[in-house]
């Protein structure tokens, strides 16, 4: 019982599936640190226990038979392979201070990695066979009466007679390995790649324009393409209907030429307020979110530093009006819905038992302030 008490899983949906899969099947290169053996033994003990009712024993046996199938093993290895590429991206997209351009580059790299490996079925297949063999060695040492399947089972193809009284030779076998590769492996990876492309790559033109706003590309600003800033100008018309793409390009070129001297005037550090949202709900102190003053160093080479310069010297008033709006739009743009979900997490600190009678308008104001 002590073992199961120490293997609790978190309920955060962002990472719980990947962590649960690693907990049960281990990692791609290390299957020893898994609880697969313990789960199988527990299900077997339940299925053979006389103290359990018949339904419980039957369900435990069904779950055990499904778990030791090779199809289950190789599917788990497939998703471990996918999570190996997507988990770093997912973790970065959840950070509160992520860089929009860097996140897009990580998405493109993840898509490229998955596309390059989308037809390397043999690697996942070999890892699944290795996992099954390693588990069977453990079961043999513990004298278990069941074994994990170490390969696909060949299934016969049923042929229907085309003519009356035709004798059918039902000895053809279907290649389960090839069938799984086509119908499961390829389709799963293609679906993941397509999902990433539909969600992020369709905004490629916008991200290309945003790259010109980054100080690292200011040295190349003389080669600014004619169609640069088209997408940004189109998006900014919702906030400033009279915005002109040509003026935006001219302001960017002028600002980039003066960046080296302007960046030297920035302070080495700046302060910002952050909320402590990691308190336990059962604690009395968790009723109120506590603000903390955080000191951060100025890199003098990022989007936020450009925004600080424009704000510090009031350059947004007349000199760089359109450019300031572009930087403001970039800094407030969210690439995922993580920040929106964090807003709902903050709601429990705003609308608590001490402030349960707040009006809807007041609650909305507090959420915006948070």
From TrEMBL:
<dbReference type="InterPro" id="IPR052958">
    <property type="entry name" value="IFN-induced_PKR_regulator"/>
</dbReference>
<dbReference type="GO" id="GO:0046983">
    <property type="term" value="F:protein dimerization activity"/>
</dbReference>
<feature type="domain" description="HAT C-terminal dimerisation">
    <location>
        <begin position="310"/>
        <end position="368"/>
    </location>
</feature>
<dbReference type="InterPro" id="IPR008906">
    <property type="entry name" value="HATC_C_dom"/>
</dbReference>
<protein>
    <submittedName>
        <fullName>Zinc finger MYM-type protein 1</fullName>
    </submittedName>
</protein>
<dbReference type="Pfam" id="PF05699">
    <property type="entry name" value="Dimer_Tnp_hAT"/>
</dbReference>
């Amino acid at each position: 019982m002590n073992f199961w008490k120490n293997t609790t899983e978190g309920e955060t949906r962002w990472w719980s599936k990947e962590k649960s899969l690693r907990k049960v099947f281990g990692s791609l290169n290390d299957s020893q640190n898994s609880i697969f053996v313990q789960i199988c033994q527990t299900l077997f003990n339940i299925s053979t226990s006389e103290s359990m009712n018949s339904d419980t024993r039957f369900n435990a046996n069904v779950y055990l038979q499904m778990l030791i199938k090779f199809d289950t093993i190789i599917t788990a290895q497939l998703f471990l392979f996918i999570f190996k590429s997507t988990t770093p991206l997912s973790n970065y997209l959840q950070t509160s201070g992520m860089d929009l351009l860097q996140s897009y580059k990580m998405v493109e790299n993840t898509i490229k990695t998955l596309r390059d490996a989308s037809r390397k079925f043999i690697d996942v297949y070999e890892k699944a066979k290795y996992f099954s063999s390693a588990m069977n060695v453990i079961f043999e040492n513990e004298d278990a009466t069941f074994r994990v399947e170490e390969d696909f089972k060949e299934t016969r193809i049923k042929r229907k007679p085309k003519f009356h009284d035709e004798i059918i030779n039902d000895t053809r076998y279907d290649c389960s390995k090839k069938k799984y590769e086509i119908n499961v492996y390829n389709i799963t990876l293609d679906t993941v790649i397509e999902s990433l492309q539909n969600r992020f790559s369709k905004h490629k033109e916008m991200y290309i324009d945003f790259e010109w706003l980054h100080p690292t590309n200011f040295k190349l600003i003389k080669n600014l393409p004619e169609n640069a800033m088209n997408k940004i100008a189109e998006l900014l018309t919702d906030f400033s209907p009279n915005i002109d793409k040509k003026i935006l390009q001219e302001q960017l070129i002028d600002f980039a030429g003066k960046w080296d001297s302007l960046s030297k005037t920035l302070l080495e550090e700046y302060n910002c307020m952050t909320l402590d949202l990691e308190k336990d709900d059962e604690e009395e102190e968790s009723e109120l979110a506590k603000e903390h003053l955080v000191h951060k160093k100025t890199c003098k080479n990022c989007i936020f530093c450009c925004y600080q310069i424009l704000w510090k010297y009031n350059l947004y008033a007349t000199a760089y009006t359109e450019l300031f709006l572009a930087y403001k739009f970039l800094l407030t743009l969210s690439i995922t819905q993580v920040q929106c979900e964090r807003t709902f997490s903050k709601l429990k600190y705003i609308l608590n038992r001490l402030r349960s009678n707040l009006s809807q308008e007041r609650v909305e104001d507090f959420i915006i302030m948070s």
